Amino acid sequence: AVYAQNGHSKEALELFAQMEQQCVKPNKVTFVSILSACSCAGLLDDAWCYFNSMERDYGITPAMEHYGCLIDLFSRAGQLDGAENVINNMPFDPDTVLWTNLLGACRIHGDLERGARAAEHIFEWDSANCAAYILLSNIYAAAG
């Protein structure tokens, strides 16, 4: 995780490859780090491969944090359809953090319609969420 957070995503992925070569079994935290590294580097295809290998190759069921990494990756890449699809197709109910991540991406990319949908989901859980109101207000202000 430290590699990725400091702009060394390639090194994080190389370290994971070394772990695999030495038959060190990754855990859920390892995959959060790997998916975060992919997110920081914009490696969407690689992230999907790692995400799919979690359960298939290692028997690790993806948790909310893993889906959050995918949502972050799609959002950074400006692929808000993909981010929303991940949220809508998770095997559990998304929390306000995931919807707020999408709402923030909608502000950055100027997606008013999707931003309003994300805000609706947030307000269903927490009608007093100040951050969501501010983000949504900024989207409307930018749209004119």
Describe the structure.
It is a single chain. The protein is mainly α. Helix content is 77%, strand content 0%. The protein has helices at 2-5, 9-21, 28-41, 44-58, 64-76, 80-89, 96-109, 112-125, 130-143. The termini are far apart.
Describe the secondary structure blueprint for this structure.
Elements: H1 2-5, H2 9-21, H3 28-41, H4 44-58, H5 64-76, H6 80-89, H7 96-109, H8 112-125, H9 130-143
Helix pairs in contact: 2-3, 3-4, 3-5, 4-5, 5-6, 5-7, 6-7, 7-8, 7-9, 8-9
Give the low-pLDDT segments: none
Specify Rg, calculated over alpha carbons: 16 Å
User: How far apart are the first and last residues' alpha carbons, in Å?
Assistant: 39 Å
Strand and helix order: HHHHHHHHH
Helix count from the secondary structure assignment: 9
The strand count comes to 0
Portion of residues within helices? over 70%
Major beta sheet summary: none
What percentage of amino acids are in beta strands?
A: under 5%
Oligomer: single chain
Q: Give the averaged pLDDT, no decimals.
A: 91
Shape: elongated
Q: What class do helices, strands and sheet pairing give?
A: mainly alpha
Give a brief rundown of this model.
The chain is mainly alpha-helical.
Keywords:
144 residues, mainly alpha, 9 helices, 77% helix, elongated
